[in-house]
Amino acid sequence: MEHETFYTDLLCVGAGLAGERVAIAAASAGFDAILLSLVPARRSHSCAAEGGMQAALGNCAMGEGDSPDVHFADTVKGSDWGCDQECARIFADTAPVAVREAANWGMPWNRVVAGKAKYWKGGEEFEAEEKKDKHGLITARAFGGTAKWRTCYTADGTGHTLLYTLDNKVTQLGVRVHDRVEAVSLIHDGENCTGCVARDLKTGKLRVYLAKATLIATGGYGRLYSETTNTVINDGGGHIIALDTGLVPFGNPEAVQFHPTGVVPTNILVTEGCRGDGGTLLDVDEKRFMNIYEPAKAELASRDVVSRWMMYHIAQGKGVPSPYGDHLWLDIRHLGAKHITTKLREVYDLCRHFLGVNPINQLIPVRPAQHYSMGGVRTNSNGAAYGLKGLFSCGESACWDMHGFNRLGGNSLAETIVAGRHVGLKVVEFLEGAEVILKSSLADQGVAAMAKRIDRLVNRTDGTENVYAIKDAMQLVMMEKVGIFRNGTDLQAAVDTLREIYVKAKKIGLRSSGIGANPELALALKMPGMVRLAICVAYGALMRTESRGCHARDDYQARNDRDWLNRTLAYWRDLDADLPDLQYEPSTKVMYMPPGDRGYGKTEIIPMDAPKED
Amino acid sequence: MSSSVDTAIFVKPPTRVSAYLDWIQMLTGAGLILFMWSHMVLVASVNIGPSVMNTIAWFFEATYMAQVGGPIIGATLLLHFILAARKIPYTSDAQGVIWRHARMLHHTDTWLWLIQAFTAMVILIMGSVHIWTVLTNLPITAAKSAMRVQGGFWGVFYLILLPMVELHVGIGFYRIGVKWGFIKRSGRKKFHRFENIWTGAFILIGLITIIRLWTLPIAGN
Amino acid sequence: MSRQLKFNIFRFNPEDPSSEPHTDTFMLEETPSLTLFIALNKIREEQDPSLMFDFACRMAICGSCGMVINGRPGLACKTLTVELPEEITLMPLPVFKLVGDLSVDTGTWFRATNTKIESWIHTDQEFDPEAIEERMENDLANSIFELERCIECGCCVASCGTANMREDFVGAFALNRISRFIMDPRDKRTDPEYFDVVGTDQGIFGCMGLLACEDVCPREIPLQDQLGILRRKMAFQGLKNIFKPKEKGRHRRF
Prior knowledge:
The structure holds three protein chains of three kinds. Chain B has helices at about 15-45, 50-60, 65-85, 90-105, 110-135, 140-150, 155-180, 190-215.
């Protein structure tokens, strides 16, 4: 097979914030790096993070007394004790440094303005005095599930500005960015990962990247669901190539977050900053309800809790009927025109353009939608993937695992550059000590195998199944049966249906020629892999007979620390199989903070030391 | 002599030429705009009475402003044309590109630029002819102007040149304003309207003047 | 009664030797709140699976879906069909290299241009992980963000007469980017250094002031104002020390 080959020290699959941050670390240490991306790097999904990133700087009045310890505790509680506490610790400690480093690179963080300031909380206005000695330092806003105001931001374009800041750094360092190139399989010998086979999405040609270290930073797998806030490229591509090795496990696939405020009907996200800044949720009578369900945190309980109460409230007949199903209202009118057109400018724009709603004097229709994947490529605290040397993962695609079963708002954007910074240094250490043999024969085999798959799809050797029909069927099952509220019957049905869909996914035949930048072929190549991921999610959820964080089982409503204080590891060892092997490991090796009550969200808890039932 | 090779030729030194040329283009443009408007007002004085125009013309010649200023205006016109023409596509390929682009875009300001580019060519030729004719036939008098206009050919000549000049000048005025940031986003619409009325007014004054010259009894002078 | 929309879409696959540039027509029934994002996906999934176009965020913040919609460059994801006539003509953005159909390669163009204008903070200040951040006025942070909101969708470049005629023109996006750095005290570049980057006919002096960029920008970035400010700044910079010979030693070298 004729193909182009690129050699590098570090290959980053994915050029969002996490991938770029690791590449910056490598390039700064004098190593060569290449970033691959499905889209031009600046169009990565990182740009969609609006509200901000959490870091315990404690500069603003409402953040006074904050520290990495408090941030750590909030994160662990948020995860419902599902996280790896070592990682959560590293994260909370490093976050302030990462924020300041970004400032040094040009990030225009919003700043403290000394003097009296008016803020809103739960529809009530109050005043706070911003201190003189903090004037001009990086400020923060409130986000759900936090004890302090800790979310650093640039209006509501934080992800966008941060991504541009980092991509500027990447440009400065001369890191090569190959955009519109998709990694389609990893190259490995069963022990070491040495790069990937990729497809140039501009021409359709296959190529090879050989690297001493390979990083997967491809974001989440939200596109397994039909109603998601994720971009169309969050299809789990990185997870597929890792899982397909049969050696690297998919950690906690069932840990999928739903965001309370997806806009109806387009599922575009409106930032949690709306509620953080004092926005409220209203029902059909235009009355608040979160203050009744959650007296302490109200609208600012964690996302899993708010989403569940919203669905519960709708089920009580309190939803607002619409042609797109029942929804609730988000009210930010009281924040005033100035606040909305500056600090919530993106929200202001998207409401007007996509909904024809002016949020200054109108209500925004919202409903929970799939939003975040806590699960991912399981790594250790260094970001090194289980199962293959030289393979790393970082950001949303990884199950590093600081989020456990629920991620706090503002912790994902933070994870990208905080974990990116940490993993970046570890990758550099790996590269410094690496003695890697790059075998081109393995690459040739990989290319040949992929070329054969493409031929079979184009020639319809295996069948004539329509790839788009398969995608729709999969997304629908996931949405209906593996959603916010889960139960054994639905999950079993989902697994069964997905297995049937998997059979069809292996019989896809193209309806178009497949020549060049053909979109049908690109989807067809990853469709069976997407269905495998979906099966992992549904099967993992079926087996986890408890409720924890965003994994809410109607039939097992208690959080079961006795039996389920662990992490699912899904392996797909044989591509002919239609179920993964599930293994489990303890949630955390170090226990700085033993399981307890979160302080929000009514949950029954079966303690670790509860006697076993038969 | 130093034996070493002059390596400096391989490094493109920072050049200020573009800045200078942009300044000169703007300043010659602004100067010509002021001249054209003044010129129109002066010629239009014939509407008050031929003697008024004659007196003004006499003043400019007695002070040698016409004899010296005329050629300077001609030279300025040429300089302005050369500078601005740097931006006008030279090859038919590039001309095709901008033509297709304008047709696709449905965008007023882009069309206005094409109008400017087109009128520039016309003005270069007709303006030069006009300047030559006037300056080689001094002094300027209302009678001579009227005679020229009434000759027929020159009447039509000025009926064409008048809107060309006023459009070019009006658009140029607006363009300098937006390019150099004197007109802000908030004032653009208002200024656009003002410029349309202003240009329309000058074309109207020009038409009245041509008609006046056309109907001016020559013997009466 | 919902409308029957007629889509005229430019088609060409440069990788396919049998492909010739042409227009294909697709019919689609209009549904409520239909955007071009939904419409094009429907056409691809139901009528022609080979149709090439780009979307990512589908909420007008990533800049992927710039295309020429009935003559005007714009973001397809935020274009509601209600705002358009029954006949909708879609073309790829000019200036950029065509990938196929409505898809163009903006990534390569923008990366090259960002490299050319050195779109990053120039500073020799080492980052000190122990130190607290340098202070900044919040208003300044907001002003920087106002310009940083550009999503590099390419609409300003595609609608620019100059960029269409000359390949080396950096476009409104780059000039706006430079304005952002000039505003930022963390970038230690001096005015003469900025002048070297954009004080040319490839930069601000190539701008003819047609303002199509201002009129099509989906982010409503104040390009007209920024370009005006930049032109004045660079023009005056060009005049500074005009009578001072640049290389004094040069003629005395021998």
